[in-house]
């Protein structure tokens, strides 16, 4: 058996929306991919048609494939599901399908079961449903959970809140449910103290400048307007403070314009996607993460690996605190002044 698997590795197809460098889920999956024995197991990636894939070149170099399926739309759902079925037929066989698509994983795993895929994994990375609630959304959530219970062979989550958000509060009696911590590659964070000066020199900041950081996608659920509001409150206490915003997303231009309207253009730096996140974390003083619905944010694990204090919303899973004395939880429903006080105290 070992000789067969070595000659022809078993393939696992991961379903995601896209593969953006700023995404925590994407980074988690790539961390796994880089470190598995690829002579025995290979990863392929099914993404929305036309979706951005920052890791495409690396995936292909490691022996994986980037495949495409239509983005799910209620008006074209049958066509989307047929496309997934054709993809499984034409690109398989797959030893496993591993879906990171939250509720839509119900449809993905039902199709995988129909195509005879033996291992079907639903993986939750969110602590809540980010879509607007309502009767239709409630019905969709109920039906997807029903499909997951019927077709998943494994139910993974990055934290207890993330498990309950996708599989229901009573999920713990189901032996298929398992918590898989969001692991990172610690070697990336073995950067010297000189990184602090290098980053600050690049930003034309002195070593003494209070420097706050946000790292992540620029999307609605990250509460970016609140981030700018709390930083404005920080500046009222510490006029010399600066903020770096690392990452991209649909709100990038909107947030840049908003920072200018708030008079923060000189002290808020939108850096976009960066490959030197460990160095940036070494150069910063405090990480700010006011976002909601986080399952277990990889960025908070990375910040602790870099020795960077964090102020995060108390809606974030408590498992994100690794017990190093670096994480402070602030009330998700608290005001910007309270958050600013917490941020300044974290210095």
Structural class comes to alpha/beta
Total strand segments: 13
Helix content: 25-40%
Number of helices: 13
The sequence of SSEs as H and E is: HEHEHEHEHEHEHEHEHEHEHEHEEH
Largest sheet composition: 7 strands, parallel
- Cα-atom radius of gyration: 21 Å
| Spatial shape | globular
Tell me the quaternary state.
single chain
- Strand residues, percent: 15-25%
Q: Calculate the terminal CA-CA distance, rounded to whole Å.
A: 56 Å
Q: Indicate the mean pLDDT.
A: 92
Low-confidence stretches: 1-5
Major sheet: arrangement of strands: 3-2-1-4-5-6-7
Short note summarizing the structure:
The chain has 347 residues and is α/β, with parallel strands linked by helices. It has helices at 2-7, 24-35, 56-61, 77-91, 105-114, 135-151, 160-167, 194-202, 224-237, 252-261, 277-283, 298-305, 336-346, and strands at 10-15, 41-48, 66-69, 96-99, 119-124, 154-157, 177-179, 211-215, 242-246, 268-272, 286-289, 310-313, 327-330. The strands form two sheets. The protein has a seven-stranded parallel beta sheet with strand order 3-2-1-4-5-6-7. A six-stranded parallel beta sheet has the order 10-9-8-11-12-13, sandwiched between helices.
């Amino acid at each position: 058996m070992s000789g067969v698997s070595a000659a022809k590795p078993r393939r696992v197809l991961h379903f995601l929306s896209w593969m953006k460098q700023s995404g925590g889920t994407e980074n988690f999956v790539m961390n796994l991919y880089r470190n598995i024995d690829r002579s025995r197991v290979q990863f392929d990636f099914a993404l929305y048609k036309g979706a951005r894939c920052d890791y495409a070149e690396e995936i292909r170099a490691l022996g994986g494939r980037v495949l495409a399926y239509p983005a799910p739309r209620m008006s074209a759902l049958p066509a989307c599901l047929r496309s997934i079925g054709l993809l499984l037929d034409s690109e398989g066989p797959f030893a496993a399908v591993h879906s990171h698509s939250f509720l839509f994983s119900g449809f993905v795993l039902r199709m995988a079961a129909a195509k005879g895929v033996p291992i079907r994994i639903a993986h939750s990375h969110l602590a809540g449903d980010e879509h607007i609630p309502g009767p239709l959304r409630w019905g969709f959530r109920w039906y997807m959970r029903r499909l997951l219970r019927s077709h998943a062979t494994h139910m993974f989550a990055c934290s207890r809140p993330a498990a309950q958000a996708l599989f229901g509060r009573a999920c713990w009696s189901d032996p298929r449910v398992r918590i898989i911590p969001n692991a990172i590659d610690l070697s990336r964070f073995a950067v010297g103290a000189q990184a602090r000066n290098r980053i600050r020199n690049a930003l034309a900041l002195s070593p003494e400048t209070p420097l706050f950081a946000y790292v992540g996608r620029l999307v609605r659920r990250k509460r970016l307007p609140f981030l700018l509001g709390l930083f404005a409150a920080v500046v009222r206490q510490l006029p010399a403070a600066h903020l770096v915003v690392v990452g991209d997303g649909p709100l990038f231009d909107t947030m840049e314009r908003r920072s200018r309207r708030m008079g923060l253009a000189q002290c808020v730096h939108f850096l976009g996607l960066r490959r030197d996140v460990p160095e940036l974390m070494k150069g910063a003083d405090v990480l700010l993460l006011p976002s909601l619905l986080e399952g277990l944010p990889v960025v908070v694990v990375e910040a602790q690996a870099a020795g960077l204090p964090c102020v995060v919303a108390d809606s974030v899973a408590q498992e994100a605190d690794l017990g190093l004395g670096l994480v402070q939880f602030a009330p998700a429903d608290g005001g910007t002044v309270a958050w600013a006080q917490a941020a300044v105290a974290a210095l």
